[in-house]
Amino acid sequence: MAIVDSILMELDQEGKTTQRILERIPEDKLSWRPHAKSMSLGQLALHIATAQGNIAEMANVDNFQIGPMIQAEAKSKKEVMDAFSERTAKAKDILAKMDDSRMMSAWMLSKGEKVLMSVPRIGVIRGLILNHLYHHRGQLSVYLRLLDVPVPSIYGPSADENPFA
User: What are phi and psi of 62, to 5 degrees?
Assistant: First the structure.
């Protein structure tokens, strides 16, 4: 089994959970934010929907040049769901082409001439595509709770949904 195979399996498994959470976002609350410094619901949902593909594209180059990071706000739930399908497929396509040697090769994050990070590519994939997504998915579940939207089961029962009942 190649390294990428376990990553692709995890993307499939966790993607189902992420989709269930994204499906719960209330379209009439996309501009809502829990705090003035927080992303809006629409920004957070679109970030989650697009991150896998965007980060896979970053990981596919040897030296990614960081620039301004501006998160657009989704205008509709359909936009979020379409972006999630498209960008997840893009991530899988990019990653599926990486062999073990490519996964273990050096990857750098730079700003101009300054190297901000240099790690094996698998570290970027694990840390940013997977762990980063789980972090923001957890944030989204809190947004849903604050909006009194039933939170789906993630890794076990929630107060709203028990898959084991």
Answer: -80, -30
Residue 152 lies in a domain: no
Nearest to 161 by CA among 41, 10, 12, 24: 24
CATH number at residue 25: 1.20.120.450
What are 25-71's pLDDT values in tens digits? 999 999 999 999 999 999 999 999 999 999 999 999 999 999 888 88
Domain count for the chain: 1
Residues 6+ apart with CB under 8 A from 127: none
What was the pLDDT predicted at 51? Answer: 93
What's the rounded Cα separation, in Å, for the pair 8 and 12? 6
Specify whether the CB–CB gap between 34 and 143 falls below 8 A.
yes
| Count of Cβ atoms closer than 10 Å to residue 42 Cβ | 24
Asked whether residue 4 is assigned to any structural domain, the reply reads no
